[in-house]
Amino acid sequence: MLIKALRTGCMLVTFGYLSACASTSSQAPQTVVLAKPLQVNYQSEVALARLGQMLNSGEYNQEQMAQLYYERGIVFDRVGLRALARFDFNRAIQLKPDFVEAYNFLGVYFTLAEEFDSAFEAFDSAVELAPDYSFAYFYRGIALNYANKPQLAVADVEHYADQAPNDPYRVLWRYLIQLEAGEPEAQNELVEALKDYRNEDWGWQIVRLYAGEIDQQTFLGTTMDVQGDNRALAERLCEAYFYMAKLAQRAGDPQLASSYFKLSLANNVYDFVEHRLALFELNRYESQI
């Protein structure tokens, strides 16, 4: 396992704090897997320069300008420049008031800022314009959950999960929000989905962890089977540590959860929902201190 880890560019490190925490959580692993943090790549820098030139050229009509702002917002979001991304998504909607995807992104940013009323307005606009746009239901469900409306959130994440029942992440988020709402069938539905729909998607390893089929050390070991691809490893670790943090939260160990959220952030996978929410959760912890 260590040889494979070195080949993929990751490291296995024993952290004293996490080892100490093992006594408070029977599932806590003794070692931590690390990837090389992702950096802003050349393609993203070139894309930002090119889109900036196109936006300043005066050669495009209003709808085309809206699309260009949206595309630049996506790149800003990917490299972690979220204030600039939010500005571009706003501009896209000003130029094209029926821009569903831009409404969805704005809803995400409003959620992260805990501006929940504005988030709901943005997600509602996306759903009204495109009732089949599943991501708006997903993110609205997350916003409702963080706004302490888990019962309403369940309806959205169940709709989201029903559209692709073989997607492990949809299964997982339905489970997480069902738990928040006190749904008695949450665990049974998770186990049934694992039995009925499990495939080769690595995300099912997270579901296996939550279903109790594997422990956290075994689970972390599954992240390293990425055949030398550091980006894939960083993405997996971003997800893995986020969902381990959520388990620590459920176990009543906020200090361990905070450590895992920080490890999730350490991979710099800015455009993953797990990265966004890890930072959101940490900010909430800090506001309570």
TrEMBL record:
PROSITE patterns xrefs: TPR
Keyword Mitochondrion set for record: no
InterPro entries: Lipoprotein_NlpI, TPR-like_helical_dom_sf, TPR_rpt, Ycf3
Protein localization: Cell membrane
TPR-type repeats, residues: 66-99, 100-133
Source species, domain of life: Bacteria
SMART domains from the UniProt entry: TPR
Coiled coil: none
Keyword hit for Signal: yes
Keywords carried by this UniProt record: Cell membrane, Lipoprotein, Membrane, Palmitate, Repeat, Signal, TPR repeat
Signal sequence extent: 1-22
Assembly notes: Homodimer.
Its biological purpose: May be involved in cell division.
NCBIfam families noted in UniProt: PRK11189.1
Protein's name in the database: Lipoprotein NlpI
Originating organism: Agarivorans aestuarii
Gene that produces this protein: nlpI
